[in-house]
Amino acid sequence: MTWDLIGHEWAVQLLRGHIVQNNLRHAYLITGPSGVGKENLAVRFIQAINCPDPVEPGIPCRVCQTCQRIARMEHPDLFPVKVEENSTQIKIDQIRELIHLFSLTPYMASRKIGLLINFEQANPQAQNSLLKTLEEPPGNSIMILTATTANSLLDTITSRCEEIKLNTVPISITKKGLEQIHGIPSDQANFLAHISGGKPEIALHYNQDPVSLELRDTLLNEHRQILQGNSVERFSYVSKYGKDSRMVNKIIDTWSSLWHDIMLQSGKSQAPIQNIDRSNEINQIVNKVDLSTAKNTLNFFLRAHSLLLNNANLKLTFEDLLLHLPRFENL
């Protein structure tokens, strides 16, 4: 783990090779599920490009002022772009400002670097406004985009980038990384590796923020209540959260992980379940549904996630999802 990241060693070797061979591309697209480590990989790549005193070629020291400023997103030649507070989209004005900054001479480094985080959240106008810069990039610049999938962006964007496609990290490797790199005790590392689904950023977030673990427990308890609730209770739940897009997406992610476990258990899969602290509850539901029902229910979550990604009405989408969930008298 030459960049002290959990997993994705092939990607580290590829990107490090580009640095060592002086063969950097003008644009990269790092894709993968939320929490898998896209932004961490991008930041370490930027540190490796700019570190003035690397441990080895392509391996940043991570302690010098340059590396520290990049980690804090405060380096004068690094321009991060993401959804602003109180917004749901990356807007065209943000991209125009980035393009203007790219037209200027680098201040400290040999090149300017744009880091566009979760670029699938950019509206079509913002994506289109980036095209000319990707087609005719300044010689002293690099664009690094992150997104869940290449399909979530315009084809004209993805075709101009080299894609680095990340997948979830095996549970055993996630556990090992949490222990060896971050010093987390074995039992806790095992628990976090499982409940994060092999997504290191989520595992670390849970470890650093106990409130997020409490929220997960609350949402899973509410899921159990919803499965036993009637339509009135489900409509009431929609009213509680139906205007909060971040909370609805959190609910969908948390509940769908449980239904993925239910589907695995229904199909007699040998794959490890994610929610290991909810094994009794999972088994109870498995005894009440068949594999077809488990698959259909999981597909309702995937459909809701896709609709929200495409700016469907939040309340109606959440409402439709809850009404399609199975109902159990006793659970």
Description:
There is one protein chain. The chain is an alpha/beta fold and 331 residues long. It folds into 3 domains: 9-58 and 96-165, 3-Layer(aba) Sandwich (Rossmann fold), CATH 3.40.50; 171-208; 211-324, Up-down Bundle (Zinc Finger, Delta Prime, domain 3). Helix content is 54%, strand content 8%. It contains 15 helices and 5 strands. It has helices spanning 9-20, 38-50, 65-71, 92-102, 124-135, 155-158, 171-180, 186-195, 200-208, 210-228, 231-241, 245-266, 279-286, 291-309, 314-324; strands at residues 27-31, 78-81, 112-116, 141-147, 162-165. It has a 5-stranded parallel sheet, sandwiched between helices. α12 (245-266) crosses α13 and α12 (245-266) packs antiparallel against α14 (291-309). The longest helix has 22 residues, at 245-266. It starts with 8 loop residues before the first helix and ends in a 7-residue tail after the last helix.
In CATH, what is the class of the largest domain?
Alpha Beta
Round the Cα radius of gyration to an integer and report it. 22 Å
- What is the helical fraction, as a range of percent? 40-55%
Question: The biggest beta sheet, please?
Answer: 5 strands, parallel
Task: Provide the β-strand percentage band.
Answer: 5-15%
Can you give keywords for this protein?
alpha/beta; 8% strand; 331 residues; Rossmann fold; 3 domains; Zinc Finger, Delta Prime, domain 3; 54% helix
Give a brief outline of the structure:
The chain has 331 residues and is of the alpha/beta class.
